[in-house]
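ingest -> validate -> predict -> emit
validate: passed (alphabet ok, no gaps, 435 aa)
predict: started
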Amino acid sequence: MERLSTQDASFIYLENEYNHMSIAALAIFEGPGPAEGKIEKMISSRLDMVPRFRQRLRFVPLDLGLPVWCDDPHFTLRYHIRHTALPTPGSDEQLQLMVGRLMSQQLDRTRPLWEIWFVEGLSAENWGMLLKLHHCVADGVAATDLLGILLDKKQKPPKRKPRPWIPEPQPSLYQLSASAMTEHLTSPRKAFQAARSAMEAPREAARKLRDFLDGLNSFRDSTKHDAESSLNGPVGPHRNWRWHSASLPEIKRIRSTHGGTINDVVLAVITRGFRALLQSRGEPVDNYVVRSLVPVSVRREDEHSQVNNRVSAMLAELPVGIEDPLQNLAAISAQMSEHKEHHQAVAGEILSSLSGLAPPALVAMGSHLFAGMEQNAVQTVTTNVPGPKQALYAVGRKMLTAFLYVPIAGSVRIGVAMFSYEDTLTFAVTGDYDH
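emit:
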């Protein structure tokens, strides 16, 4: 039995009939598709490396504590691995529509929170594999690490055999409640230990406090003005999904020539897209910004094997009112440098860790309040996840490309996820289907 972190649990509390808090990665492989059963064997041989795949959520009575992960005594691999096919000729648009429909369906909370869809009938005789999992299981970086665990780094890797597994006994309602109460009793002690550590290292504690307050002020300055547009509003239960690909070496050349970071260049590209979108709707763009939540990984190098959420965020104001693309890039580079200087991501990380001392009921309330506040503060979410630089394989077939799916929630009707693989950077856009 392992308790969810506050950040992991927030994605559970945020979910409702309209907010589907699942993320996904769609990988396209060279054809032909593998014979039936090969995908199951591949996943089965790696289940011991991903304990979450055989665990389900258990909720504590009366919300006395955050939910916990427990082994699922009824785990069946075939329930989680699904097969489907596109009608001929299997176009990209058909695949995108299918993924949108699959991501509009919530995962069954009575079972482990993941699915893998094996998709046949793609163009050029390729095939696809959609990994869908709940955001409470992993963030984008952890999901990418998970993809590296499930797939092979060599076309003909050594064979792995499934390891025996015996599920641990299910905790009773009394045990769930008692465990939560025990943790509440130890929370003050943890807070005291943290305070004592700060007293022993006063300069470091002072620096962290200064960075935290600086980051909070930067967040406040970024959200003090509303930025209303058709990008915000009521969100329905259905999703639309589209993608595009770009050359990573070309993006690196732009960065080398004009300055900034790769992420700055990517944000500039997205800014141009939002400018064109708003103009196509007849909405003014002069002196206008699209405010985007930009997730920032705070995962240390030694945490890459952990399947969980370790993410903070910054707020970027995408200057869609600037027509010249180079001026656009310069403005974004200057803005992101300022955000880093003022420690926005540091403030978000500290707030997340402090929320671990809050009762679960307050965590749930805070998640819903955040979703409600988004309509005044955030128009979109844009996440850039670095992927593997070397080729990956599934049952001997090379992965040609991959696209990420980012969920939308609250009043945010559109989100963009970027993913790099070898020499390609992909953009995948999630939208509310009705808008």
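Confidence is low (pLDDT under 50) at residues 190-199, 343-358, 362-369.
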